[in-house]
Design goal:
Length: about 240
């Protein structure tokens, strides 16, 4: 009797082993599927976060703010050559004493103000939709001529009349401009801009803080609003990096 029970129990156990093994394989397969789905969800989350990060960086640095390096010593001592400059791109109005970042076509700097102004306006009007899209997305149009970057201080805006006399005096609308933050005289550059200069709509007269030799509106005339990339909001000193 005991042998039969023992034999029967062994048979039941033996007959149940394949079913248990088959169930284990299904369970393992289900676990593998769940693990795969979990990995795919994690990968999807990483990709979504990466896309969102790229979108934030794109909006931040191509449409909201910009970063550049001060190319020379024209704004010394406030901004020295090599300092990192952070500027705000969405500024729609520019005021006197604002420090702005702007570009000028390099070849146009050898022409008179009226000549290169006409060239810039014509080039802007002739752009088709995809070239304008490149500008909007923050990419340089390959058909655009090389440009030179400048950082200067605004001293006069649309409708103002600017004059610099032989005594190194700057006046706007007939009033002498007193600049307590400028430590150099404002000499007249002979043979370039003729004074008095009345600014048109969307035009600004800019000067370098280092007035003795700085490249500014005394050399290339007024800066158009279309040339302005943004208004400086902060700087990082090169010797503190």
């Amino acid at each position: 009797m005991d042998n039969k029970e023992k034999t029967g129990k062994t048979a039941e156990q033996t007959s149940g082993q394949p079913e248990k093994a088959a169930f284990t394989d299904e369970e393992k397969a289900a676990k593998r599927i769940k693990l795969h789905r979990r990995h795919m969800r994690a990968l999807k989350d990483i990709l979504i976060r990466l896309v969102l990060l790229c979108l934030v960086v794109y909006i931040l640095f191509f449409h909201l703010v910009g970063v550049t390096v001060m190319p020379n010593g024209d704004m010394y001592p406030r901004i020295d050559a090599g300092d990192l400059v952070l500027y705000y791109r969405l500024e729609k109005t520019v005021h006197a004493q604002d420090i702005i970042v702007f570009e000028k076509p390099t070849a146009a700097l050898d022409k008179s103000y009226e000549e290169h102004r006409e060239t810039e306006v014509t080039a802007s009007v002739e752009k088709n939709w995809w070239r304008k899209a490149l500008d909007w997305f923050g990419f340089r149009d390959p058909a655009d001529p090389p440009k030179t970057l400048f950082i200067c201080r605004v001293v006069a805006g649309p409708g103002d009349t600017v004059e610099i006399d032989e005594g190194n005096h700057l006046s706007v609308n007939g009033n002498n401009v007193v600049e307590t933050n400028i430590f150099y005289p404002t000499p007249l550059y002979e043979g370039f801009v003729e004074y008095p200069l009345t600014l048109g709509e969307g035009e600004y007269f800019v000067l370098a803080d280092y007035r003795n030799g700085g490249a500014d509106s005394r050399f290339f005339g007024a800066v158009r609003m279309d040339d302005i990339l943004g208004t400086v909001i902060t700087i990082a000193r090169r010797n503190n990096l």
